[in-house]
Amino acid sequence: MTNPNVETWTRANAEYTDERAEQAWAADEITWGVWNVPEAEVHALPEVAGKDVVELGCGTAYVGAWLKKRGAARVVGVDPTPAQLVTARRCNEKFGLGLEFIEAFGEDVPLPDDSFDLAVSEYGASIWADPYKWIPEAARLLRPGGELVFLCNSPLAVICSPDEDLPATETLQRPQFGMFRFQWPDSGIEYHLPHGALLRLLRANGFEILDLIELQAPAEAVTHERYSYVSAEWAQQWPAEEIWRARLQHRSS
Ligand SMILES: C[S@@+](CC[C@H](N)C(=O)[O-])C[C@H]1O[C@@H](n2cnc3c(N)ncnc32)[C@H](O)[C@@H]1O
Predict the structure, then answer these.
(1) Are 246 and 210 spatial neighbours (Cβ–Cβ below 8 Å)?
(2) Ligand 1 pocket test target in 18, 76, 84 with most atoms within 8 Å of CB
(3) 3-state DSSP helix/strand/coil percent for the chain, to nearest 5?
(4) Which of 2, 8, 35, 193 is the least crowded, having the fewest Cβ atoms under 10 Å away?
(5) CB 105 within 8 A of CB 129
(6) CA of residue 237 relative to chain centroid, distance
């Protein structure tokens, strides 16, 4: 039986991610999230020149491409959806950036311990993989002192969303206590933890938290045509997306 996330992302690749990939690979500026907040404003990433990078749930891998263009020594994109990797490989060929790709889930990555200086995820493993499995995997793959940077939805946006197709409201739609695994209608399985649980999970896996950057939609933002789960007006007032930055101090086991 096909995995529901692979099904969802095979469909998404045919509907929109494939056609947008080359433009994203070509972009000079690193930006974050629905509102394209510039990395130059938020400073979520460490210096990557000469570093080994793994992208967990790379999709079409434009984030990995941006990091390779900034001098990363090695970038490996990991994703379970073959169609997404076909697009990533095509772009890699076209842009000649020398990324490597592996078909795998973020919960179980066939790469050796201690092989990377940075693990990154932009709405990849960070929302589509079980955090109690992918965060230990990220810790295993990183060298001590390595960093984990990931973008996900804020718990507040999830709590205020009636369902995946309707925009976040200004009222609480579901409990925060117990939030973890979400299967929205017609979609794959997402994972969203409250801040306390995520913070404890990171610390239990040897990470110290360096930053939690709550992204704000800029004043001129308009509601995104595809990612309309949150309106621009909502995201100007409350954080809909957030970037976690953590450093591996030691291996927990
Ligand atoms: C929003 S896309 C990735 C984002 C990437 N930055 C992009 O836009 O191309 C989500 C990706 O997560 C992948 N994915 C789904 N389940 C996963 C899992 N369990 N572990 C890692 N990646 C997963 C999907 O195959 C998909 O390519």
Answers:
(1) yes
(2) 84
(3) 35, 25, 40
(4) 2
(5) yes
(6) 22
